[in-house]
Amino acid sequence: MSQLILPEQGGRAGFAHGGEIMKLMDTAAGTAALRHTHTDLVTARVEGINFYRPIKIWNLVAINAFLTFVGRSSMEVRVDVFCEDVIKEDKVHALSAYFIMVAVDDKGKPIEVPPLILKSKKEKDLWEKGKRRYEMCKRDLMPEDDNFKVCREELIAFD
Questions:
Q1: Which CATH class is domain 2-116?
Q2: DSSP reduced 3-state for 55
Q3: Which of 47, 95, 153, 158 has the fewest CB atoms inside 10 Å of its own CB, making it the most exposed?
């Protein structure tokens, strides 16, 4: 997914608003999950969003999103954002995050999703790391509400 960052998406200093970029990332994550599940989805959580480089107005933003882990109804989607000064032909990795998407039925209840088919060693390694993050999150409960799950902050290393 690619988009040119326009002046209305930024501030006076000439940089894109972070929320504009996060919205594009959410759309890319949802699209990747939709292609896997072919059903309605909701964004449940965003983990480890890290801005490495500022994105300027008139930069071309390219967003790559792919599934790294699939649970019963949830999916972890890795989203990487690259920005490019097209005139200078300068492209850099600007930010990354993991989006947790949940497949839902027409009443908004979680539904089962197909398993993720892993072909390469890298895909298997990403799946194992995603599974560890998933299991860590699943154990953490808010004491006031036994049904509300929340994840602790975790350092995420990007390859």
A1: alpha beta
A2: coil
A3: 153
> What's the full length of the chain, in residues?
159
Distance of CA 26 to the CA centre of its chain: 6
**Token digits of residue 104:** 């839902």
Give the C-alpha separation, 156 to 115, whole Å: 24
Positive or negative torsion for Cα 6, 8, 10, 15: positive
In contact, 81 and 23? CB cutoff 8 Å:
no
With H, G, I as helix, E, B as strand and everything else as coil, classify residue 6. Answer: coil
Residues of the chain with pLDDT under 50: 141-143, 149-150, 152-159
Q: Which two tokens stand for residue 129?
A: 């790391």
Rounded to 5 degrees, what are φ and ψ at 148?
-100, 115
Which stretch of DSSP H or E encloses residue 122?
helix 121-139
What is the sign, positive or negative, of the torsion defined by CA atoms of 120, 121, 123, 127? positive
Give the distance from CA 156 to its chain's centroid. 13
